[in-house]
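User: Can you help me understand a structure? I only have the sequence.
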Amino acid sequence: MIRVTVNQTIYELEKGTTLETLAKMVQKPEEPVILLAYADGKLKELYHKMQKDCYIRFVTLEEQAGYMTYKRTAMFMFLKACEDILGEGAADHIAINYSIGNSTFCEVMMEGTKVTEQITEKIQKRMQELYQADLPIEKKSMDTHQTRKYFESVGLQEKQRLFRFRRESRTNIYSLDGYDNYFYGYMAPSTGYIKTFLVSSYQDGIILQIPRRHQTERIERFEPQPKLFRVMQRSREWSRTLGVDTVGALNEVITAGDTNHLILLQEGLQEKLLSDIADEIVQEKKRIVLIAGPSSSGKTTFSHRLSIQLEIAGRKPHPIALDDYFYDREKSPKDKFGNYNFETIASLDVELFAKHMNLLLKGEKISMPNYNFITGKREYNGHELQIGKNDILVIEGIHGLNGMLSKNLPDESKYKIYVSALSQINLDEHNRIPSSDGRLLRRIVRDAMHRGNDARATIARWDSVREGEENNIFPYQEEADMMFNSSQIYELAVLKQYAEPLLFAVPQDCPEYQEAKRLLNFLDYFLNIKSEDIPKTSILREFIGGSCFQT
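Assistant: Let's start by predicting it. Here is the structure, written out as tokens:
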């Protein structure tokens, strides 16, 4: 017998008891479903058998690790349902492309198959049958070379490409009622854990929805975001045009020595789009450009590069940082933990900002503020600004798209741009790379290089940052006149060499260790690209250093 402690309650169990058995003993019907567990601080799937006395903390849908497990298992059930409804091998022709909120867009590439509501209703019904049957999801370990040969034989080419570069000798494969697949990350032990989901048709594809983290029993009505969807589609078209839409394909480019050509193409595509945006701003005679986006999206470098294009188009840009309009720290609102909340628009002096911008548009001279983050005070250091009638104000900050910020500015003068780093490549056909992972890695590298924060501190704050984005940025992204994807196909292969030492330095006995370990495992899929090949004007330079825009 072993002694297992859960929330100060001790259970005496037979050696070899699974975490799933214990979870069923402690699960309460009114509480969110348990999906994973920390065993003595190490994150484990519920398959895990306990062999010694240990401390257990269960993980539910409300935590990020549990939420991703729920999402991943729902996707496995979805692919199995597609096999059952559309025929054996159907999942081989379905690409899991990108997320829109709590929804995942899946592209169906079966010749002669058109997605209809009738088809999605059948898939939904089949998934419900899988849930009610509570079928086991089996986990088995296979030799990686054999795994690659298996996926090649069943037509999953991107999976076999991915495993060509995998260093691990063994690979975990999941099986559901005879359907096998590989998923990066943890899985629930059976279909009975995935109760709530919704399948529907959208834009010639299929949307799979699951609950949000804190809404475990219901799904919000799908709200189409056509502008975000278009920019994601354009990014996927770019990656396919370049022939690099998966990590395996990227690694093949690296091993062939063609990375410099790939970098030049990617940078050229972004520069062309920047030029087009600048031309549109000039043609429409806009005088205020408002740039917003989530953390580590590359807004600063974007604004510099756009300013250059505006100058080429014959206009003089004037950069303005919204951060300089923060209230003095003691006047700032606080969050639920009692900390100053700089993520809310209530922390900005919106009235002063609008007054200054209107005066500038009238040709008057004003004294520009500068916010001192050390003293927490707004200062005036003699910086005066006056603009000409053809000059353009380029304003950057997370609240740039919020209507409250610019409601007192003339609508005909405004041009709004949303900048975000949206993943352009996937691991393989069925494993997305979350855009938030790319932004977190960017921020870890940047914070260490430019702000003196280690990876542990950056990871610790990430949930709070994401919550601020959910409340203050994402709700306004469809207000943009233009969306710009700042991610680059090759960037994770460059960030790897900077991020890995920082992640290895996270102590094993701290709460952030599991996330650092997860990111290290993720980066292991990528081969390195040396940073010397990255242009000094690249958005990536904002994070790894060496940008010509940094002083």
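Now, to help you interpret it: The CA atoms of residues 278 and 321 lie 19 Å apart. The longest helix spans residues 259-283. Let me know which part you'd like to focus on.
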